[in-house]
Amino acid sequence: MPEPPPILSFEDARHLVEAHAAPLRPRGKELVELLEAAGQVLAEPIFADRNFPPFSRAMRDGYAVRAADLSPLPATLEVTGEIKAGARTEDVPALQPGQAAAIMTGAAVPSGADAVVMVEYTSHDAGRVQIMKPVFAGENIAAIASEAKRGEKLLSPGARLDFAAIAVAASVGRSRLLVYSKPKVAILSTGDEIVDVDVPPAATQIRNSNSYSLAAQVQAAGGEPVLLPIAPDEPERLRELIADGLESDLLLLAGGVSMGKYDLVEQVLAELQAEFFFTGAKIQPGKPIVFGRVPCGRGRLARETLDSPPSHVYFFGLPGNPVSTMVTFELFARPILEALAGMPARKLAFLNARLKSDIKTKTGLKRFLPAILSGEFEHTEVELASWQGSGDIASMTRANCYIVIPPDRERIAAGEWVPVLIR
Ligand code: AMP
Ligand code: MG
């Protein structure tokens, strides 16, 4: 008899997911337009095609000077002319001792000058400028190649193309970028009571929200959601739909993993030769979370990846209560998805905030409770969002973070610093 899959502590479960995520690679690469690349994952290194800045650049409007000319103060210098941004260096004479040139932010500093005095500290009159404040050599100048040298690597494969990375790509003249193909993430909601959004629900039916919240989370994490039809609590159809889901790079099931008589997800996965790594984590919400993988080649063609063909498709059986579904995706499914998207591993990052009002809870589970960060400037405070439990979707729209409560705490007093996971 194989060992039954364990119920792990939050930390052990998370570490296990991270260990499985580490060797995963994206499926392919594609060339996309720069605008389309925003939010995707870079699949090539990006190099500086020229020096940054390409010339010694004035960082202020003012006068290009030789710093040594400014003592004693005030110093009076002959103004040789005006240098606008974009003016060609060949057209600008070199600065001689005793001279200054009016210069604009972004213009090339003339040879001979080693500093720029801000216009605020000068007065100009009849071809001469009087300077009231000293400058050090190099002040208000971004020296040629000081930000990056031509040929230097500015971005590495795996970088998420946020606005700063997009700016770097634009600045080196890349109007198209090679990005990793987004992993396809199959989403399968289960439950006889679940109906799709545009079907009028009968009195005891519930509209499917999990498929859509998960799709939004998948997109935000760099994946491409593939929504499957809702699976009934019936093994035949469930098996068919799970088999369809295993055609994707990752399968997310929602619902049907609790201890109920019609919670069939694990049973059907076991019939498909699934390996289970855990079938629960000591957390709330989301205790019945299931993580495992199915060998591929059974109802699924092995496909090429960058390194080697994938030998497994990973799946998560997420609890169906909507808040549990959302939280367990973030805590456990996200690292696998990000690895398949080509992103380097990231640790979960918590910040600390002062608790606004007392919390009473029970021991035994690590809790991630929907909460609201407020306060101003460096006085961040946090309090629980009012919620009616893991089914309360509306409470999640009021929350902007989770307060993390360790399993050994029963009461946390207002004023204590508590760990917070930002949503
Ligand atoms: P389960 O995990 O299947 O036991 O479901 C737990 C609770 O979540 C039940 O109240 C379900 O009706 C609800 N639920 C399950 N799936 C969904 C879904 N796709 N959308 C909204 N609620 C759901
Ligand atoms: Mg169910």
Walkthrough of the structure:
Helix 1 (10-21) packs parallel to helix 7 and helix 4 runs parallel beside helix 7. This protein has helices at 10-21, 34-37, 163-171, 210-220, 235-245, 265-271, 322-340, 393-398, and strands spanning 7-8, 29-33, 46-47, 57-58, 62-65, 75-83, 99-103, 115-118, 122-125, 128-131, 141-142, 153-155, 176-180, 184-189, 194-195, 206-207, 224-227, 250-254, 275-278, 280-281, 283-284, 290-295, 312-318, 350-355, 359-360, 366-376, 379-384, 401-405, 411-412, 417-422. The protein has a six-stranded mixed β-sheet, with no helix packed on it. Strands 17-14-18-23-22-19 form a six-stranded mixed β-sheet, sandwiched between helices. Helix content is 19%, strand content 30%. It is elongated, with a radius of gyration of 30 Å. Strand 26 and strand 27 form a beta hairpin. The chain has eight helices and 30 strands. The protein is α/β, with parallel strands linked by helices. Bound molecules: adenosine monophosphate and magnesium ion (MG). Adenosine monophosphate is lined by residues 189, 191, 193-194, 206, 208-211, 254-258, 260, 319-322, 391. Magnesium ion binds at residues 190-191, 255-256, 320.
